[in-house]
Amino acid sequence: MPALSPSTVTPTAAAIEHSRLLSKQHSDGGWGLVPIQSRAGRFSSFDVADFEPVSGFETEWKYTPIKRLAALLDGVLGGGRYDYSVDKDDDISVDWVGRSDARIGSVGTPEERGSANAWTAFEDALVVTVSGEEPVEATIIRSAVGVEPRAAHLVIDARPNSRGVVILQSTGTAQLSENLEISVGDGARLTVVSVQEWADDGIHLATHFAKLGKDAHLRHVVVSLSGSIVRVNTNAHLAGEGSDVELYGVYFADAGQHLEHQVFVNHDAPHTKSRVSYRGALQGEDARTVWIGDVLIRPTANGTDSYEENRNLLLTDGTRADSVPNLEIETGDIAGAGHASASGRFDDEQLFYLEARGIPEDEARRLVVRGFLSGIVQKIGVPAVQEQLDAAIEAELRA
């Protein structure tokens, strides 16, 4: 599939031309090259040809096992439609559209090679449109993506003042690289839940772009429970005054799994608010998780209120959790900004308390882990999804 060009998508022509006029991406590992210090200065382009091959020294890839992702980073990806099932209310629509649709490219631009390769390769995009002021809900299930490397593109368009919940559930075997654009119109309130329960050999690269209008609210939840490699990057652009975003994540890594989540919150308008909270548990030899949280408060974002945290619970030996919070503030007029990160083992006092009341050690450990993760699960606000995730977490613990 040819790369996206200005003649293909008119609304993003200026952005595409700007990307092409910039110099190509460079690696942090080259001699004499100074790595970009600000998150705002990261290179972006719709065309995979504008990105250098991934070496593993790049800031955005240095924690990722790139050798296992060669097919998605450098290979030719299938970009056709895939099978899915949907359960939705009448006032929410789900349709395939071509690349020339004006909504495609209106929210974000790829900042790394994997996302750009998927953007270059996809042929049609699946668009979910949320409209009307009465709450609506849709659940999209993908269980037959296939074993061949492929690209996908999904758009969620929440019209001004709409109310909606969109749940994306992914299961089965896959080698999938995709982009998800989330447009939240002025005054809209949207919840997006992305659940990754791939087969043990599943490989999934995803970039979620979100753009919020004036007084818009987005609750975005990422749940990663299985798969060989799962890497979900979430970029939230608070472009409208008074916009508010909640970014939550919960993950459970077993032996040999790599679960990675990168978050970028871009405060670009006055009086915006963000809350980021990700929690994970790890068990088994070579279970690996990565969380990177970037928050940028621009000079235009006076009155910003921002906080991010990541907490990890290491259940066995042989696990590793990397947690990297970053905060950039370019204005002195803010309501508050902060971050926190912690990774550790069981609290012996909690276990002693439970065992002293006659609860066996194994059951006590399960209760502690479920309590630790349920703090995020309960924020989803969709009872059916919360019950499903509670059951899935319980199954992971008993296994």
Automatic annotation (TrEMBL):
Gene behind the chain: sufD
One Pfam family in the UniProt entry: SUFBD_core
Family label: Belongs to the iron-sulfur cluster assembly SufBD family.
Protein name: Fe-S cluster assembly protein SufD
SUF system FeS cluster assembly SufBD core domain boundaries: 151-372
Entry superkingdom: Bacteria
